[in-house]
Automatic annotation (TrEMBL):
It holds the Pfam family SpoVT_C. It comes from the Bacteria. The gene is spoVT_2. PANTHER family: PTHR36432, STAGE V SPORULATION PROTEIN T. The lineage of its organism: Bacteria, Bacillati, Bacillota, Clostridia, Eubacteriales. This is Stage V sporulation protein T. InterPro entries: B_subtilis_Trans_State_Reg, GAF-like_dom_sf.
Length: 154
């Protein structure tokens, strides 16, 4: 928890997010992953998406995390959803409720683990029907997550 005093002398409490400190760096890394893969790339802290590339910032930035992202962080494991909407983690996802089913076709999520604790996640997402993600995309998000974790430790 961070404590600030604003211009009017009011005390402001703000939840500390170590990965949010890397905001511009995370954005640049997301841009690089998007340029290399063509897939929507998002980076989150423990609560919200903090960087997005390849899609509307309005659609993703500062949005709450979906259950699959939370699960990847909780289990400290990469999650590969090859048919979005049909994966078990999609059952409780708000994106998959009602008549408007999930518009993702597949995604890969890797947790950012720093000093043994999950502090965020890196995601590659596709909305294109003919796209499949495999080992390459898994390695890319795991490498990105590992790199961001190392940056946080220094």
């Amino acid at each position: 928890m961070e404590i600030f005093v604003d211009r009017d002398g009011e005390v402001v409490l703000k939840k500390y997010s170590p990965i949010r400190e890397m905001g511009e760096f995370a954005k640049e890394y997301a841009d690089s992953l998007f340029e290399a893969t063509g897939h929507i790339t998002c980076i989150s802290d423990r609560d919200t998406i903090i960087a997005v590339s390849g899609a509307s910032k309005k659609e993703y930035l500062n949005k709450a995390l979906r259950p699959a992202i939370e699960q990847a962080m909780k289990e400290k494991k990469t999650i590969h959803i090859d048919i979005a909407g049909e994966h078990a983690l999609c059952n409780n996802c708000p994106e998959n409720e009602g008549e408007d089913k999930c518009n993702y076709t597949c995604e890969v999520i890797a947790p950012v683990i720093s000093q043994g604790d999950p502090i965020g996640a890196v995601m590659l997402i596709s909305k294109e029907s003919n796209i499949k993600m495999g080992e390459l995309e898994i390695k890319l998000v795991e490498t990105a997550a590992g790199f961001l974790a190392k940056q946080m430790e220094h």
